[in-house]
Amino acid sequence: MTTETGFFCTSQPNKHLLRDRACRRVRLSKFLPKRIINIFKRIYKYISTGCRKKAESFENCSYTFRPCQKQRSARKVRRVMHQHSGNGGRSRHESAEESSRRARQEQRREQDQERHRLRLLQHRNPQPRTQPQQPYVLRAVPHGRPPPSPPPECLLQVERPRVIELPDDGALSTALADHGYRVGSTVGHGSYSKVRVGIRSRPDGTVLRLACKVIDKRRVAGGGSSYVTKFLPRELQLLCAVRHPHVIRTHQIYATPSTVHVFMDYCENGDLLSHLQRNKGMPRWQAHAFFKQLCEAVDYLHRNDIAHRDIKCENVLLESMELVKLTDFGFARTCVDDRGRQLLSQTYCGSLSYAAPEVLQGLPYEPKPYDVWALGVILYVMLADTMPFHQSDRQRIVAKQMAKTFYTPKKYVAREAMHLISTILEPNVARRITIGEVKSHNWVKHRYPNDTG
């Protein structure tokens, strides 16, 4: 039996301990197989050998273990006795290096105690943190998968475009040349207009590619007189007022007695319908991102009491494969009068496939729920790769809409997405959800693997 001050170890176990181990071995042999018992023997042998080696190391070096209370007291007494012995405040057996090391340890301990005391005081009496004022930077809020950041002038330019009235076409050519605008070839046609490529040369030497919407008043004077007198002034007024990352931006408007030139952003990837037909559908994460961006654009319009009334895939332009913009405000209007009262619309607007049942029935309707209905149709087209109502007859479409009988999807649509579509395409206007409820739906708030916004 080996003992050491401050440590106790048995290198030779006594007979009582051997007897207990033998009894345990006998009892274990009755229930455990022999292989398991051999494993326990190996473990016991390894542990006992390690303990014996550890005891030998403690015998050889007395400073490898923590001293007991009696040894610590003895050392403290010797340190006190030799403080005034004239050896620089150190004991007889203590060298200069050990003394300096001990002094540094004591100094470090005092610093830690002081630091801990200050931390406690700061925790009890917290001081208000003063952070430097960060400059405000206007940024586009990402929706779904983050789109590439728009040009800085699209967000930082605060001045609104205005309608420049000109007397004739000669004055129009002069004004376009003075402001650096040029009109190129035709790239598209509309009901009352055509779209041409526009180029603007800036004073700093850069060139900006735009789209120029040319409206010929003489062409629509016969069958579209109501458009020129009623809808066109509304469109120009709203184009000068709206500003949103997912709404097409208007740069300048020139009006003559015969034509109107509207210069706006150019989206070279075409519209949403052409993209779906060209690629035969789109992945779910992309449809999810595009729908969130459209919801943000419509929510911006509705919060400003503006209704689009012609939302469809042809009026959704792709600036890139990750960014869409809403365009064509030909049928847009305000939803309140001068006194702030809600107005009902009676004009049949939009396309047959995107029209709500109250519009197809010829009833006075609220324009905001009509926009929400059109969003539901676009969502169904992007997810199911088909229109929800395939009939060309108005009465049959209304019957399908009232019964909520959708056309069979060509590909799988998730259950949450179908629930959202069912709540949007609700024939009862009072039960149809608003754009705010659409944005708060679980499917809209869901993050797909490709979404990082």
From TrEMBL:
CC per GO annotation: cytoplasm
Entry keyword set: ATP-binding, Developmental protein, Differentiation, Kinase, Magnesium, Metal-binding, Nucleotide-binding, Phosphoprotein, Serine/threonine-protein kinase, Spermatogenesis, Transferase, Ubl conjugation
Region of interest (Disordered), ranges: 72-114
GO BP term, pick one: spermatogenesis
Family annotation (SUPFAM superfamilies): Protein kinase-like (PK-like) (SSF56112)
One Pfam family this sequence matches: Pkinase
Domain Protein kinase: 181-444
Biased amino acid composition, Basic residues: 72-82
Coiled-coil region(s): none
Compositional bias ranges of the Basic and acidic residues kind: 91-114
Transmembrane stretches, start-end: none
InterPro entries: Kinase-like_dom_sf, Prot_kinase_dom, Protein_kinase_ATP_BS, Ser/Thr_kinase_AS
Cofactor: Mg(2+)
GO MF, any single term: magnesium ion binding
Residues holding ATP: 213
Family statement drawn from the similarity comment of this UniProt entry: Belongs to the protein kinase superfamily.
Designated name of the protein: Testis-specific serine/threonine-protein kinase 6-like isoform X1
Source organism: Sipha flava
